[in-house]
Amino acid sequence: MKLFAIFGDPVSHSRSPLMHNSVFKNLNYKACYTRFHLLDGSKLRETFFNLKLNGANITVPHKEAAYNACDEIRGFAKKVGVVNTIINEDGKLIGYNTDADGFMFSIKEFGDIKKILILGAGGTAKALAYRFIQDDIDVTVLNRSQNRLDDFKDITHKCYTWDNFKCEKYDLAVNTTSAGLKDENLPAPQEIIKEILNNTSFVADAIYGKLTPFLKLANEKKIIYKDGADMLLGQGILANELFVNGELKKEDIKTYMQKSFKL
Ligand code: NDP
Q: What backbone phi and psi angles, to 5 degrees, belong to 12?
């Protein structure tokens, strides 16, 4: 029996156990997926080995700590320095990032997106920003504070805090902050959010399972929006493929993961 887990703080809201266990159970794959409330990201590696895990997902706020916990980083994660999936390969921790491709999967229905405003500058924002520029999408980043914006200098010159933000027209504005996850905060002061909503065609939120204050405002303004559920599904399918190492078909993984959203 293989064992997987998700690490985060908070982690009780996470749907990942339900999603992955639905795949394992329905496809008779001998594995179990649980959750672990990790307060200190620097303890990730030792906790992973203490629990004798075969693999794990990592959520807020430990994705950068997860990058540092790995012995080897593969693929897109190398570029962004942010890891959301870890595989135990013969005692070595291999890190991947499946969030950004998961998000691209989720916005397909918006059609041709050329200009995106990212709210937030954390791990998810960085992964998305790198992924967007791969597709030649024009990227602007708006964050509460300056510090993390320094990480975006190689990606875009359009990096703002709330104090110096210059709003343009966007195809999509996406909230990657954790504002609205455990509280009822907007990702920026209300007057800035209203200006953004007056200037964007679509809105997305990485948070799932609730209508955040950001999405509520978008809804009031009749802007087409989506929460983070499809992003979650997209990253989950890609992570599960890594967990089972080719032993299950992607279409089957998708079918049973999708079913878990109806539970
Ligand atoms: P990080 O901790 O790396 O970054 C958090 C960001 O949010 C920072 O930019 C921080 O700004 C900002 N922030 C936090 N609180 C507030 C606030 N009250 N007002 C404005 N800005 C705030 O988090 P992650 O990037 O790992 O995750 C961000 C969110 O995305 C989480 O809610 C997570 O659940 C969600 N997520 C969803 C996924 C899905 O599959 N649907 C996948 C990945 C993430 P500052 O720099 O000023 O501190």
A: -65, -25
The per-residue pLDDT for range 75-93, each reduced to its tens digit, is: 999 999 999 999 999 999 9
pTM score, two decimals?
0.90
In this structure, are residues 69 and 44 in contact, taking their beta carbons and an 8 Å threshold? Answer: yes
CA of 82 relative to ligand 1 center, distance in Å: 13
Give kind and range of the element (H or E) at residue 116.
Answer: strand 115-119
User: Cα(50)–Cα(38) distance, rounded to whole angstroms?
Assistant: 13
Which of 2.40.110.10, 3.50.50.60, 1.25.40.10, 3.40.50.720 is the CATH number of 101-227? 3.40.50.720
Q: Provide the CATH topology of domain 2-97+230-260.
A: Rossmann fold (3.40.50)
Name all residues whose Cβ lies below 6 A of ligand 1.
59-61, 63, 99, 102, 120-125, 143-145, 148, 176-179, 181, 185, 187, 206-208, 228, 231-232, 235
Which token pair is 260?
Answer: 């878990």
Burial of 157 (0-12, 13-18, 19+ CB in 10 A): exposed
Active site residues: 63
pLDDT class for 262, splitting at 50, 70, 90? Answer: confident
Q: What distance in Å separates the CA atoms of residue 198 and residue 30, rounded to the nearest whole number?
A: 50
